[in-house]
Structures are given as C-alpha cells and as structure tokens.
Specification:
Shape: globular
Distance between the termini: 33 Å
Radius of gyration: 16 Å
Order of helices and strands: EHEEEEEEHH
Strand order of the largest sheet: 1-7-6-5-4-3-2
Number of strands: 7
Largest sheet: 7 strands, antiparallel
Strand content: 35-45%
Structural class: alpha+beta
Helix content: 25-40%
Amino acid sequence: MKVLNIHQRTLNQPKSKIAELLKTLSTENDRIWPKEKWPEMKFKDGIKVGAKGGHGPIRYSVEKYNPNEIIQFRFSKPKGFNGIHKFEIKELDKQKTEIKHTIEMTTKGKGTLIWSFAIHSLHNALIEDGFDKIENNFSGDQKSSSWNFWVKFIRKQMTKRKNK
C-alpha cells in the first residue's frame, strides 16, 4: 500500500527559533518530541547522518540532517515499512515558519495491517502532540490536541499488554 501522510503547522516565529528547537530533538533537553505522552525518540550517539535509533517499536536511521531545513529518517522496522519520514522547516516570512512532517512509504504484508489498524492513528496523534509541544515553547496559552477514540483504545490495549 502506498502511504503519504503529511502534517504541517504554521508558527508565528522566525525560522531561526524553530531550527534551534529542531537541534534538541532526541536530546536530554528535547523540546519537540512529546516524550511525556509517547515512547521517547532515542539515538545512541545523537542525531547525525547514519545514526540508528527510533521510538517504541519503530526503528529508523538518519538519512539527511540539516537542522536549519530537514531531518530525514529511513525506516528499518517494522518489517513491511519501506520508505522515509522527515521533519522540514520552511520560512514563510521573517516571522512565520512552517513545520512539516511527512511519511512517504509503501507497506507490505503485516506492515500494511500494522499501519492501517494501529500506527496510522497513533502516528497522527503523536505528531500533533509534537507540534503542540513546539508551539507551546512560545506561548503562555498551552495547546493540547485531543486524541480520538481509536487512539485512546489502542493505547489502553497496549498498556494492558505491557502490564501483564
């Protein structure tokens, strides 16, 4: 199955401020990844081209890295996920920046089932939580996207399985 999943948000901040946040991804002082709610993104030696890591059961390696523009990852797990996901930042004007997350992949076999019934919804919630976290770095009015029923249900089932 061909998958193209895009999330984007416009922030009323200069690109330089968003780029500074992007440099914190997968560090102890991560100001992007919503690790308070989701499995932490981890890379043993930090984010650099060739580094291997991931979050939860999702594994990938860094394929491109320019914190002023893009971080691109190539999937290695789960089996059947063939493609990339990436964060990009683009200056819209001096005080507006677009942040964008894209998954471009094809899925096969079990990977198609995993994507369709679990990962797709979880991924959408995780990215929106991450975009909220980025936006909340600049606002006193804390944004918090709500999860749909399916995300809440899957997370509850995962917690039950983990606690057995």
